[in-house]
Design a protein that fits this description.
alpha+beta, Nuclear Transport Factor 2, Chain: A, eight-stranded antiparallel sheet, single chain, 3 domains
């Protein structure tokens, strides 16, 4: 909702009674919120624009990737042929990539799709695609360099590692400010906007559409920000530490897998994007080489055991990392986190070492898992998908229309065109409490807010040129 009330405030200033002393000083609540809304947009819009665009790609990854890589991902089932055993397909992959480690296998999602093996090679991770009927290797891709893989990295860290995570988290914090101030401006400015539309003022239609769209999207934006916070590198990590100290967790911890863990499922499958959120931090148990040498289980055994135990399909099977490793069968339950389960299969006797699912999650992990399913547009199937897609499209409109309105009304002189306003915190204690609460609950917001206030007090107000450029209220 950035910049939407630019014209609104101007109309009020021109059509109402002569400016009061408070307005001349820029202490009115409307003008103060307008200013914070304006400046928040400078940080929020570039990041949110990227998140909305990459979010759209991620939403339709299952439709886009098979089109872009049809030669690898799509197959034709020959008449009379059935799929080869997964172990046979695994042997073909190992022969095609000698010296590499096959990390996991994911079943075909349909009769016209290939089997996918995740392989760690000397040159980096590869997704290897196998024709399940002929058992031949079709080719491979770097999972982080596909369209959807790049979108995931941009969406999560702007391809800048930990610092990228911090930038996204900071923008998310200020997006809350932008949404809350935007709602205030939308409600308070509705009369002025109606006047401008009735008068046929330039840009009135765009301002009205921007405001109405923002009023609808604001709630969704707040939800996506809150549901995405557990992913963040600072707030998410610190809050998880706090939750753990209170006996709960954002993630589940498989007690049966903690006896001799070699890694977590996230660490076992770092590039697969198939591990459910709630199971990502579960440990992986070990097989006992001295137990059950009479038979050796295969990846087909793990699939069969998973199917007998009701795991959702297509399953992903994490392969044993060594003589003590296990087959970890993961049932993703794409549309219903409540049906997420994983089980670990001993690689010798084929027995289930442990099983863990949504019903075993801590209460907090259950809430986070459901929130993330909504965030990713999959909780309620096609309806959730298209609503989230419409939301992303609306955000893209907001990111374009806000700067466009500012560009149209920007002053011709050497000034930024920022609205003049100052938060009347002394006169409105409730507002002061809200600002302090946000700063405490969102530490990166608090730190950045303090930096902005210090810059305003120590630099912008004292340098005449900067004071004029930024239109600082004295």
């Amino acid at each position: 909702m950035s910049g939407v009330q630019g014209g609104t405030a101007v109309v009020e200033a021109r059509t109402d009674a002569p400016d009061s002393k408070a307005r001349r000083r820029g202490t009115g609540l409307f003008r103060a919120f307008w200013r914070w809304h304006f400046y928040a947009s400078f940080l929020v819009i570039p990041v949110v624009l990227i998140l909305a665009a990459t979010g759209l790609i991620y939403l339709f990854r299952f439709q886009l990737e098979p089109v872009l890589h049809a030669d690898l991902m799509k197959v034709v089932q020959p008449a009379g042929l059935v799929a080869q055993p997964y172990q046979t397909q695994l042997d073909e992959v190992r022969a095609a990539f000698p010296g590499s480690t096959v990390v996991s296998m994911t079943e075909p999602s349909g009769p016209d799709r290939s089997t996918v093996f995740s392989v760690d090679t000397a040159a980096g991770p590869r997704d290897v695609f196998v024709d399940p009927y002929e058992g031949k290797v079709l080719g491979s891709l770097n999972p982080d360099r596909t369209l959807s893989g790049a979108a995931i990295l941009l969406h999560g860290e702007l391809m800048a590692g930990r610092w990228g995570e911090y930038v996204i988290e900071l923008a998310a914090c200020w997006a809350i400010v932008m949404a809350l101030t935007g709602y205030y401006l939308f409600l308070r400015g509705r009369v002025a906007r109606a006047r401008r539309r009735a008068a046929g003022a330039a840009g009135a239609v765009l301002r009205s559409r921007h405001g109405r769209t923002g009023a609808v999207l604001g709630i969704g934006l707040l939800f996506l920000v809150v549901s995405g916070l557990p992913w963040t590198g600072f707030w998410g990590a610190k809050t998880q530490e706090f939750a753990t100290s209170r006996g709960t967790s954002f993630w589940s911890e498989d007690p049966g897998a903690l006896s001799n863990p070699t890694s977590t499922l996230d660490e076992s499958l770092p590039h697969s994007h198939t591990v459910p959120w709630g199971l990502g931090k579960t440990g992986v148990p070990r097989s006992n080489p001295a137990d059950g040498h009479r038979s050796v289980a295969t990846v087909d055994t793990a699939i069969e055991v998973g199917a007998r135990n009701g795991l959702r399909r297509p399953m992903t099977i994490a392969l044993p990392a060594g003589d003590e490793g296990v087959f970890s069968a993961i049932g993703y339950a794409f549309e219903d986190p409540g049906k997420e389960r994983s089980l670990h299969v001993d690689q010798y006797g084929g027995r289930v070492v442990s099983t863990y699912g949504y019903q075993d999650y801590p209460a907090l992990a259950k809430v986070v898992s459901q929130g993330i399913a909504l965030h990713e547009g999959r909780r309620f199937g096609t309806v959730n998908l298209w609503l989230t897609a419409a939301f992303c499209a609306g955000v893209l409109f907001m990111c374009v229309s806000g700067p466009l309105m500012w560009w149209r009304r920007r002053p011709k002189g050497r000034a930024l065109g920022a609205p003049r306003g100052r938060l009347p915190l002394r006169a409105t204690p409730a507002l002061a409490v809200l600002v302090v609460a946000l700063a405490v609950f969102l530490p990166l917001f608090g730190i950045s807010l303090l930096a902005v206030l210090l810059l305003d007090q120590l630099v912008l107000r004292r340098v005449a040129g900067l004071r004029s450029w930024f239109n600082v209220a004295r």
